[in-house]
Design brief:
Blueprint (H helix, E strand, L loop, with lengths): L10 E4 L2 E4 L10 H4 L13 H9 L3 H12 L3 H14 L7 E6 L6 H14 L4 E7 L12 H4 L1 H4 L4 E7 L11 H10 L4 E5 L8 H4 L4 E6 L12 H4 L4 E4 L7 H15 L12 E4 L8 H18 L1 H27 L2 H15 L5 H27 L1
Parallel strand pairs: 3-6, 3-7, 4-5, 4-6, 7-8, 8-9
Antiparallel strand pairs: 1-2
Helix pairs in contact: 2-3, 2-4, 3-4, 3-8, 14-15
Length: 382
């Protein structure tokens, strides 16, 4: 064990700086500032060309700002983000997309950090989209995934972007698909999406990734999670985490239990048998074997055509979900609907009309309003 000599610090005042005796006043200071040179100012507003050029060359600051543009709910930002994304589309689609899910406390973040560090050591560039749960009360998120992945976040080959779930199904942020494409355009060849892990509606994640991984524990009541057939039907692999030390024997038993359960469940991917594996994010064991499994999965599904069919299906799912969102916004932002809604809600709560009748009335009003708007548009054209 190294010995460190500690002394009582003596403070000295140099100019307007208060520094410790024996330490150079410019240590740890930007050399441009120390020499009197002014640091180039960051552009406050980026043009479309700035975004496209910056993301294309893999600049992480530009990528972060591009994702912020995508996540904005401003109509002005939406149009700009879509134009930027359209120009970057030819650079997308070449990354392997992996989803990590599991109950809170299963060690997903720790496993992703160890897994991501291993991939970076192999020469890969890894982007992690970590989705934080959004409070139903305050509508806020902690967004602390960079803290939980401290080592990985400091690597130049990695990019970590925490995003609020925003209450969407499966704990996936509404713009995660577009964020994923931005990361691919920036040259990241492995995209990892970590979900909230609520154990419900994880089909949203399944519709975004190529390989879906379920992280489970043993000895913490998590064995009951295996009873939830729905989430197991989505998994391409099940990983029993924390398979180390005194817990290793129990983890092996749990693996056998999951293997028996899997026999009665239809595989998540055509032609690919789901299996359970042991791993320890802490001791970094089983991760290399897991990566080999994922590579075999990719090779086999590409040869069979399943990989491309899944990607095509995901694109159509994305289109349909955007249609649903657009129609939802058109309806609830319509002036006629917002004006009539309080009265209709009151009628439903007082039992004067049924919810079904209320919906029929509001939809009817919306249809009439849209038809009238179309007539006005045609009249103006004539």
């Amino acid at each position: 064990m190294e010995n460190y000599t500690t002394t009582t610090p003596e403070w000295a005042v140099q100019g307007n700086q208060k520094v410790m005796s024996g330490i150079n006043a410019t240590d740890g200071i930007n050399p441009d500032l120390a020499s009197g040179r002014s640091k180039p100012k960051r552009k406050m507003v980026l043009s479309e060309d700035d975004y496209v050029e910056g993301v294309s060359r893999g600049d992480r600051m530009t990528l972060s700002r591009a994702i912020t543009l995508i996540e904005s709910n401003s109509p002005k930002h939406f149009q700009k983000a879509q134009r930027v994304l359209q120009r970057l589309l030819p650079r997308t689609g070449n990354a392997l997309r992996i989803g990590f899910t599991g109950v809170p406390g299963a060690g997903k973040s720790t496993m992703i950090e160890s897994f991501g560090n291993m991939l970076c050591d192999m020469g890969h560039r890894v982007a992690v989209l970590a989705v934080d749960p959004t409070s139903s009360v305050t509508k806020g998120s902690i967004l602390g995934d960079k803290t939980r992945m401290g080592t990985l976040s400091r690597r130049p080959e990695a990019f970590i972007r925490p995003s609020p779930a925003g209450g969407t199904l499966g704990g996936v942020a509404r713009k995660s698909r577009e964020t994923m494409l931005m990361c691919e355009a920036a040259g990241y060849d492995v995209i990892i999406i970590e979900t909230v892990g609520v154990g419900q509606s994880e089909t949203t994640v399944r519709s975004m990734v190529d390989f879906f991984l379920l992280v489970v524990l043993t000895g913490a009541g998590d064995d009951l999670q295996g009873i939830k057939k729905g989430i197991m039907e989505l998994a391409d692999a099940i990983v029993i985490n924390k398979a180390d030390g005194d817990n290793l024997v129990k983890a092996r038993v749990t693996r056998g239990e999951y293997e028996r359960m899997i026999e009665y469940i239809r595989p998540a991917t055509e032609g690919w048998p789901t299996h359970a594996y042991l791993a320890s994010a802490l001791e970094k064991t089983g991760l290399k074997e897991l990566w080999e499994v994922i590579q075999i999965f990719q090779k086999r599904t590409m040869e069979s055509g399943v990989f491309k069919r899944r990607r095509d299906s995901q694109l159509l799912d994305w289109m349909h979900s955007m249609i649903d969102e657009h129609l939802h916004n058109l309806f609830f932002e319509d002036a006629v609907i917002t004006g009539r809604m309080p009265e209709v809600r009151d009628a439903v709560l007082r039992g004067r009309i049924s919810p079904t009748q209320a919906v029929a009335e509001l939809i009817g009003m919306f249809d009439i309003k849209r038809a009238a708007d179309r007539q006005v548009t045609l009249f103006r054209k004539d």
